[in-house]
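Narrative of activities, Objective 1.

The group set out to show that a structural description can be obtained from nothing but a protein's sequence at a throughput compatible with the screening campaign. Below is one input-output pair from the validation batch, recorded exactly as produced.
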Amino acid sequence: MKAVKRGVKRGSKKLKRIMKGGQTPTAGNSIYSGGGTSRAYINGNISVAKYNEPWGITKDSNGNMYITDKGNNCIRKITTSGEVTTFVGVQDDAANIQAKIRVPVNPGYVNAQGTAAKLRRPQGIVCDNNNNLYFVETDNHVVRKIDPSGNVTTFAGPPATTSNSGGQTIRGFVNGASATARFNQPFDITIDSRNNLYVADNQNNAIRKIDSNGTVTTFAGGSSGNTNGKGTAAKFKFPYGVVCDPSDNVYVADYMNGAIRKITPDGTVTTVAGGSGLGYVDGNGTAAKLRPVGLTLGPNNTLIVSDGDPEKNAPAGTAHRIRIIDLATSNVSTLAGSGSQTLSTTQTSTNTDSSNLLNITLSNPTCMLYNSAINKLFIVNTGTLNPPKSNPFLGNYIYAMDLTLKVKYKIRTLAGGTLGKRDGTGTEARFHRPIGLALTSNEELIVTDTVNNIIRKITHSGVVSTIAGSDYGFIDGPAATAKFSNPTGVTVSTNGDIYIADPYNNRIRKISPDGVVSTIAGTGVAGSINADNMSSTFNIPYGLTLEPNGNLIVTEFLGNRIKRVPTLPGGTVLTIAGNGQAWYSDGSGETAYVARPLAAVSYKNALFIADTFNHRIRKMVGNTLTSLTGSKIPVGGLADGYVDGDASNAKFNEPSGIAVDKNGNIFVSDTNNNCIRMISTSGKVSTLQQEDKTNYVSSKPYGIVVDSNDNVYVVENEKSRIIVMSPIYYIG
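Output recorded for this entry:
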């Protein structure tokens, strides 16, 4: 999922696990810092720090976070070790508590170093690539800059002078050079790849653009309304939040329109979601309703939206949530929050380490930061303070939420489902106990229809045709008259040659692109002779895969061997693992044992083998065979079962199919457990979760492949069908 937002709001398209000075993570989902039913100002460790209407959040390239503490008129810094300090601005908490007024004492407009500077209600904040901070002040109507040393200057808007040092400078709507430009309650700020700043100028209903020299223009909007268009032809209604994506599109939380708007780099405004007013409805595009305040880019091409209540008048159940938008489809769903900020009589804080994000209590969430290095979403909960009345709600805290990407699979029948022998489309087609599966270069499927002794092709739309075979037997020649004897494994070369394991003929066969079937290895006699291709013998060759150099890898079921077979003339068949005895041992060549291996797959410089009767997944690099999975048992022992977790302790029950996706994750048909398992690149075994339990893998899965879009295709042998498992990604 994303690059540093230049702090908070820029992201990446995929989750990144590379730590770059990442913030100290919290366990699960919990309050990270702050909290309480009264405002305060306390520095120290995150566990004791207190805030007063915090609003904005960003982080620098070192992983330090910065919070605009609006009610305390300062910028707070949270280091990677979890210490909270005041970075800029000055505060006098004792005087604030005594005053009990909404705007604390010590506001002002003074440019200076660190705590000598004075601020007045800072809100949105962003960090550039050089660790300069830019923030907006709603009451001073300016954009200010903090360099890495903590020196505060005015970047756009009226300059600071002795006459306006108390704050609240002249508001307005003026474009031009930095010192002459005017804003009217700017609420948020973001930055693009060229260091242009974009400001949500709330009361001017505009998105303003500030170039690196401080020159201000109107990027879009400028009058109240709800109109799409280009530049100033578009209309907004009190925009609150802005965020820029890696392509320099600007997304806007158009609050009073209840809309998420998108502005392309040329200034064209469209509506992504919502637009029919404030509310709470999940749905697609404009059918959804939101109360959008803050925005950040999330993992996997998503936009995360905080549904706040800045006006403190939201109808019950319509605010205090985090929503997520799939930018590919504009679908809006609820990520977190119960919709209520009221604490129960027994509750003293928000739910901690909650496994159900929809149950957690949020209190007027505003700005957010997604830290891809640690998969955390930090949510600023401003609360609904209304001094001098006591605050009945918990607020003034930063909530940390785990944003681990999860996946479940939607299953449908691509073809078959009834025993028979018929070409056709989808479920009209008939198979009889198919086993092998392979992808062509254009990602159509090749299936060995084992009991029918034919080879089938399935198009993307599910059209099934017979491409070779006629009956049980052995005949080379034209595809239509060729014969196979219960074909099993299949693999396809880049030039379109289809290789078939023909077990009861003890041969390896090939179907050329022009439809001619030939034998490339094996005499037809069961045996274990290694020689040139046509003089070699096999003992029930079952699984096939092609190595990058074009050689075939063959798993021998009864021969208990793994063999390498050249596809070009002049080579020699070699045994690379096993010696004929069904046993288990790691090692090299004949010192390594396998037991009835049914499938193999080649990935980069490694082979992965479904060592079926050893109930293990084995890995071979060079001449060395090791165990990738399996319980720690004595050499030669067998241990079937069903256990997810670390690969070294995982258990399978006769795995019979194996595939690798483009990222190196291994997918296994765990045949006797009737499920599909995945071994991640980090060595974790998990079972693929299925969305619809009425249509699930349940009937002896065998052949398996994964396409470039992460769809998993599986042969269900006993149901005589081919299914496709399409991933559905979500965050939890």
